[in-house]
Design goal:
The complex is a heterotrimer of chains A (94), B (493) and C (481). Chain A is mainly alpha-helical and 94 residues long. Chain A is 35% helix and 9% strand. Classes of the chains: A mainly alpha (94), B alpha/beta (493), C alpha+beta (481).
């Protein structure tokens, strides 16, 4: 199944990635090869087969509703690219 | 016998006999890193001050008779995917080039609590995506047995560090083979325990339902010692085991006599180097000679594990790696609007393989393709798991298989062919898909390159793996002079 | 001309009343300095993992039970993926195919005053996003924005109704009732002004009698039920005109602009709705047993519908009185407390709706902070009923109870409010008044009933209001025979 330029642009947009024009062919070629390979999954009849989302059959793992210390704000902001008055800072959104 | 040849127990003996202090031992390891690592490139970050300080504290405990355990004072290293409080944690990505976590991964915390001495953080494929460490944003690690070859990946730095005696043991992570394949290529022992045995808290995720930390060590017994220290329930990880952990060291002393070793025929089919198959058969003979019963079994859905792995891992990765948006941490590429920052930061910060997997995963989860890819794969996952459940239910104690089709490949050899590179994981990914326990032990070599065998056990059957592994391992040491020439010549990064 | 029928569905987000966030141990306290109620988990730092708050699950179950839902025996969490600076992980942990509660309903009065059930499709648990402080007036005019993650990962329930409402009035009735039920259940603070209850409207029009739904429009940014009511009316009108002009309704999200009183199109971006939901691998499923459901159900108080019925039937209260009390849960709970000790429910209702409410309002207090104890009010009402003090004194005592926090018995004795109910003690005073007011006494004997009132007043005056009026009347009648 061939992936198209449109497909790649669509998913790149969703993933917030920019694919430069000169990179596009390379991506298409490699992605198509991998998607073709994934296609063999379609050979298997999975009618009525349940989904496995967790390999460990655990359930009801909870935490008590008890407050624990927060991270000191200087540590919260220590890795931030930009801050102002205790906030993180980003330029206008659009 | 050089201290570098010593196991953890032997090192403890030396420390107890005051033949050496932890401080001196750590200095020796740091000196060796300084000498050898410019050739191997196992480390992204070395932390000499913190290491020496920890070693000193250990020596003081020892002097006071307050030693915490068998790992106290022993120098070790972590894959640079484990968060370390106050120490740079890059995940071999440019996007985290400046990230200093304010918390420790639980498994590192557990080691620190028993006196481990951290030498530094080891190289990997960016975000653990790769099989050669060539996807590291910084440099590729070299295989100590042949520096033209890969140490494997993604935990290549951790495996090479143990093989080249740049740490007594290390931790890595394994999502589809990232501990076992480099252990095999570098001639060390590597375990990927059952999903849930080691807490994932503080480990930068690639694919959350497949990721599991593992241990690299010189031999099976060392591996058991470290695994006992890092395993067990963690209240910070909802998916960590609620069960008590096993007696892995005790298991190393048990006899394999009467154990049933399965050989799944699907692991010996086309694409596997005949020399590799021969080696695994030799291992089977060794088991038989020791009184184990070797039985051929079948896991019919094996060939679907690899495509299933790439759908699952990429889908989860596309979501796990979305948080690197340049807002709260990491390297931001400045632009006039946030929308542009998102795209520029992520496009510049991630390497090509990471971007490819994010695109694949986004595609598999996007509307219109979700059922055909993602849901289908979750069903295939059930079928693969059921294959193993049946085999283990039939009385098989563990399975014996090749680790990869062949020995370590040359650096650059597969760089432009991701699919062929993915194929090297064909024998290791089914274990992550099914959430099983698995271990690689060195056994033989092909043209001087180490070759290991893979042992696979039912969930939480690590004790059986340690018994079987102890019976079959042939510990492998790096020939003493092999790196000399390279060190003298120096190697370009 | 075609007549149109409005079809309205509502979505509510209610913040759950837990002490800590849904997946970490940071406090949920409102306000606080920016980025001080956060930790690596709610900041979405690399490698951290969520662990579910059990109380959040139980509060969602409570909401479900209070709203007549089925509690799912098996539910799980999913990731909803999108980028926004208030969303630290770039995905929201929510519940998609398997929510914790399904298929409930709320009863509201329809246009004809009959009872109508509005169905609830589902209730699911999820995490809140952080808050963006904008440098300018709004997001579009700001040069920069400042993320604060204190609110990030506060537990929310999203309650989704079926499109069962036909008017702004019904929608408002649904909202009011939902808010009240959640408040009774103790699930949420439901303060729209603080954002602990938020509401979105889905609205479409179709020709009357048709069963083919029109194109729906979503309205956001409604911070009161009044705004919701106005927005629905505006949107009904806008859509009807468009249809009449032959224009096509666009499926879109619109924002309510309070200032101009209209809904405005929000710039919709393509791709926005491809959220790529998939099961959250970092959390395990929630399995709820019937025993657990019953344990949670036993924590629920009597809910408004049932309570209103009981007050009407058992206590003989009027519709008005019932509604007044039931509308304020704290008042209703207080009513129950007082009624445990003092059994004249009608009197309790009158006092609560009257003087108690008045004093709370004067003191600018919330009903949650009624400063008097239920047993003290019961004592006071008992004193008034038995005649130990008169009604005016009782009011004065209540006032002082509010002001000083003193016990009623203490106030009554300090201020000498105890009524004289001893006839021998009063006979003297009555005799003296009759002698001093011979004319009035004559008038009464001559049949002038009004004179009785005057004479009573004189006795009350002479006794500084402490005489039991019934007794005074009795004595006057006897002595003037």
């Amino acid at each position: 199944m061939a992936i198209t330029v449109n497909d790649v642009e669509y998913v790149a947009k969703l993933a917030k990635l920019t694919i430069a024009d000169e990179e596009m062919d390379g991506y298409i070629k490699k992605l198509s090869a991998i998607l073709d390979y994934m296609q063999q999954l379609q050979e298997i009849d999975t009618n009525g087969v349940p989904l496995t989302t967790h390999v460990l059959p655990l359930e009801n793992i909870f935490r008590k509703d008890e407050v624990k210390p927060c991270l000191p704000r200087e540590k919260v902001l220590a890795n931030a690219p930009d801050t102002e008055d205790g906030y993180f800072k980003v330029p206008k959104i659009f | 016998m050089s201290i570098y040849d010593m196991t953890i127990n032997q090192l403890q003996q030396q420390l107890n006999d005051k033949n050496i202090s932890s401080y001196e031992l750590t200095k020796k390891y740091l000196a060796r890193i300084e000498e050898i690592d410019p050739v191997i490139h196992a480390y992204i970050t070395v932390t000499p001050e913190a290491a020496l300080e920890a070693a000193k504290a250990s020596d003081e405990r020892r002097a006071r008779g307050e030693l915490i355990g068998d790992l106290d004072g022993i120098p070790m290293a972590l894959k640079d995917i484990f968060c370390t409080d106050g120490i740079l944690t890059t995940c071999a990505s440019k996007i985290l080039a400046n990230f200093v976590p304010p918390y420790n991964a639980t498994c590192w915390q557990r080691l620190a609590d028993v006196g481990a001495v951290l030498l530094g953080k080891c190289n990997l494929d960016e975000f653990a995506m790769g099989s050669s460490t060539e996807n590291s944003a910084y440099f590729a690690t070299r295989n100590p047995f042949d520096i033209e070859r890969t140490p494997g990946g993604s935990s290549g730095g951790s495996a090479a560090a143990v093989a080249a005696d740049l740490a007594a043991y290390t931790l890595g992570t394994d999502t589809g083979g990232s501990v076992r394949q480099p252990a095999h290529y570098c001639g060390v022992v590597g375990i990927k325990p059952t999903y849930g045995l080691i807490s994932r808290f503080g480990i930068i995720p690639y694919a959350s339902s497949l990721d599991q930390a593992g241990v690299f060590a010189k031999n099976v017994y060392d591996c058991a010692t470290v695994l006992e220290a890092v395993s067990g329930h963690d209240e910070k990880d909802s998916t960590s085991t609620p069960y008590p952990i096993g007696d892995y060291r005790g298991a190393c002393q048990r006899d394999v006599k009467g154990m049933k070793i399965g050989m799944p025929k699907e692991f010996f089919e086309e694409g596997i180097d005949p020399r590799t198959i021969e080696i695994v058969k030799k291992a089977a003979e060794k088991f038989a000679a020791a009184g184990a019963e070797v039985i051929e079994v079948s896991l019919p859905h094996t060939k679907y594990a690899l495509p299933a792995y790439y759908v699952l891992a990429c889908a989860e990765a596309s979501s796990n790696l979305a948080r690197y948006d340049g807002v709260r941490y990491g390297v931001r590429v400045d632009k006039p609007t946030l929308e542009e920052i998102f795209c520029a930061t992520r496009s510049a910060g991630f390497g090509e393989e990471v971007k490819r997997r994010i695109l694949l995963g986004t595609y598999a989860l996007s509307s219109g393709y979700y059922d055909a890819y993602y849901n289908k794969t979750l069903q295939v996952r059930t079928l693969i798991k059921e294959d193993y459940d049946k085999v283990f239910a039939s009385g098989i104690d563990c399975l014996l298989t090749p680790v990869t089709p062949g020995p370590a490949f040359k650096l650059g050899e597969m760089l432009d062919d991701p699919l062929t590179m993915y194929m090297t994981d064909v024998c290791t990914v089914p274990i992550n898909i099914a959430g099983l326990a698995s271990m690689v032990v060195p056994f033989a070599d092909i043209e001087g390159l180490p070759v290991g065998v893979q042992l696979i056990g039912a969930p939480f059957s690590e004790e059986k793996l340690f018994t079987a592994a102890s019976a079959v391992e042939v510990p492998r040491r790096l020939p003493p002079d092999i790196l000399k020439q390279a060190v003298e010549k120096g190697v370009e990064r | 001309m075609t007549e149109f029928q409005t079809v309205i569905g509502l979505e509510f987000h209610a913040e759950l009343k837990t002490k800590t966030k849904i997946f970490c141990s940071c406090p949920t306290t409102f306000a606080g300095e920016p980025n001080t109620h956060v930790c690596p988990v709610c900041l979405g730092l690399p490698g951290v993992l969520p662990v579910l708050n059990k109380r959040a699950v139980e509060l969602a179950m409570k909401a479900g039970l209070a709203l007549n839902c089925q509690i799912s025996p098996f539910s799980k969490f999913d990731r909803k993926n999108y980028f926004y600076p208030d969303l630290p992980k770039a995905y929201q942990v929510t519940q998609y195919p398997l929510p914790i509660c399904k298929s409930g309903y709320i009863t509201v009065p329809d246009a004809d005053g009959n009872e109508k059930n509005i169905r609830i499709n589902r209730i699911h648990l999820e995490e809140d996003a952080g808050k963006l402080v904008h440098s300018g007036e709004s997001i579009t005019t700001s040069n920069y924005s400042l993320p604060d993650y204190n609110r990030a990962a506060v537990p929310l329930i999203e309650i989704v109704s079926e499109p069962d409402m036909a008017s702004a009035e019904e929608a408002k009735a649904f909202g009011d009732k939902l808010k009240l039920i959640l408040e009774y259940a103790g699930v949420s603070d439901v303060k729209m002004e603080q954002g602990s209850l938020r509401c979105d409207v889905n609205i479409s029009l179709m020709p009357k009698g048709s069963d083919k739904l029109g194109t729906k429009v979503e309205i956001k940014n409604l911070n009161s039920f009044r705004a919701m009511h106005r927005a629905i009316q505006f949107e009904e009108d806008r859509q009807r005109r468009m249809i009449e002009r032959g224009e096509k309704i666009v499926q879109e999200t619109r924002t309510w602009d309070e200032g101009s009183g209209q809904t405005l199109s929000m710039r919709s971006k393509e791709n926005d709705h491809d959220y790529r939901y998939f099961p959250e691998p970092d959390l395990v499923p929630t399995v709820i047993t019937p025993e657990w459901i019953e344990a949670v159900r036993s924590e629920l108080p009597e809910l408004p519908d049932k309570r209103e019925k009981r007050l009407k039937e058992e206590c003989g209260l009027s519709y008005y009185d019932c509604a007044q009390i039931v509308a304020t849960p704290a008042l209703a709970f207080f009513f129950d407390e007082v009624a445990k000790i003092f059994d004249d429910k009608k009197t309790i209702a009158n006092w609560l709706i009257g003087d108690v409410s008045r004093l709370i309002n004067v003191a600018e207090k919330e009903y949650e902070q009624i400063p008097i104890a239920a047993d003290d009010l019961a004592y006071l009402l008992e004193q008034a009923k038995s005649g130990a003090i008169n009604n005016n004194s009782a009011k004065a005592v209540l006032e002082e109870m509010f002001a000083s926090g003193k016990k009623p018995a203490e106030i009554i004795s300090e201020r000498g409010f105890a009524q004289i109910s001893d006839s021998s003690a009063l006979e003297e005073a009555v005799k003296a008044v009759i002698e001093a007011n011979a004319k009035a006494a004559e008038d009464f004997r001559a049949g002038k009933q009004q004179a009785m009132g005057f004479l009573m007043g004189q006795v009350m005056k002479a006794t500084k209001g402490q005489a039991n009026p019934n007794l005074v009347k009795e004595l006057l009648a006897k002595m003037l025979k």
